[in-house]
């Protein structure tokens, strides 16, 4: 579900492709083997994932133990001790439990259906006939790899992918529920979005009409028109308009979310953005990397499909990708963004404006709040959490040195790049070719799954509400809320280090 609340209207698009570091089982069609080194790296990732999975299961089991223990304490009744010779036998068959060194009560063992299922899944994933000291990978994951086959529409498969498939099926069910009288407007819109997404006939009939209207509202896509003028381009205005149509803003990201050091308050955040390709590393492999060139070709063909001259499209999209490479180079890799204390940098709007003068930050933040009709006035001394101050500082120089035409092309491209699944088949075919180069498979997933994922991406809070109401009982919140022992889980994991 959505992890942050963007200050934007929800766009009728889907997110671009992503390849997670949790990928654990790759399709042989995704590229040539890298030999022993590649296998070793893959096995290292698999084993790391297995350890992480063990930790997650341990957390779930520990939480279940805590909640179960609380319930049992309330309902505890005296237990009868079997009489000698009564026929009630355990362990060695003598009627006496073997000494395991465990002096605790039976409440220390979780036997709820969820715990039993988690333990069963773990055992099925392992191959206990293998000596873990001889082949830990096979011991930990042998059962899983032998019982799973990569679907044609996927390039990778892992435990979290199968979990996501289960969630997608449940999302489909809640999104296909009839619109109910009196339900929240956001929930109604999420259902309508899903229905419009799966209606391919209407999409073909609409052609590119609505998309071109939106492109014009963004100030036009320079690659499409020889009459586009830099004098009419205003960066802040275009960025703010973009926020109305996409929850994945280009250039930099900004959103309102809970203050991580003051959970009772909400605060504005500003951060480096996501990129057109799955992550920054794709831009750092060299200008002639095949996936980067495929991305540039994808952008060029989309521009031509929207009406651009082919030669102009090639030149403009090359400049645009060069610009995006510069942005990727000044961004932080994910491994350097894990320490929340280091990412928590309080800055005033005036501080940010001083270090990054190419953007009118006062204008941007003031008008950002107006998008959602929030009657809030921000002063230059307003505190904002700046998660990557150095990115904003370096961004200012790049914007100053880059032609406005290139910047405008990039901003509009980031909107257009999210459109193919909402456009006619001939446009989706362009995306499919890019997907083949990016992740190694051209097989398209079922339309309902694409639409369920898009609805969840764009209406996360509304879809999350539907999901919880359908699949979580009221007692789930009560059990967690009433537990005072959550801290003990944290202490438990600290002892594991």
What does it look like?
It is built from 20 helices and 4 strands. Among the domains are: 90 residues, no CATH class; 243 residues, Neutral endopeptidase, domain 2 (Orthogonal Bundle), CATH 1.10.1380. The N terminus is likely disordered. Helix 4 packs across helix 17 and helix 8 packs parallel to helix 13. The chain is mainly alpha-helical and 497 residues long. The longest helix is centred in the N-terminal third of the chain and has 41 residues. Helices cover 53% and strands 5% of the residues. The chain starts with 34 loop residues before the first helix and ends with a helix. The relative contact order is 0.16. It has a 4-stranded mixed sheet.
Let me know the number of strands.
4
Let me know the largest β-sheet: 4 strands, mixed
The CATH architecture of the domain at 204-446 can be named as Orthogonal Bundle
Order of helices and strands: HHHHHHHHEEHHHEHHEHHHHHHH
In CATH, the topology of the domain at 204-446 is named Neutral endopeptidase, domain 2
Give, in spatial order, the strands making up the sheet with the most strands: 1-2-4-3
| Overall average residue pLDDT | 80
Query: Into which percentage range does the β-strand content fall?
Result: under 5%
CATH class membership of the domain at 204-446: Mainly Alpha
What percentage of residues falls in helices of 4 or more residues?
Answer: 40-55%
Shape: globular
Output the CATH homologous superfamily of the domain at 204-446: Neutral endopeptidase , domain2
Structural class, judged by helices and strands? mainly alpha
**How many helical elements?**
20
Low-confidence stretches: 1-46, 66-104
* Span of the ends, CA to CA: 30 Å
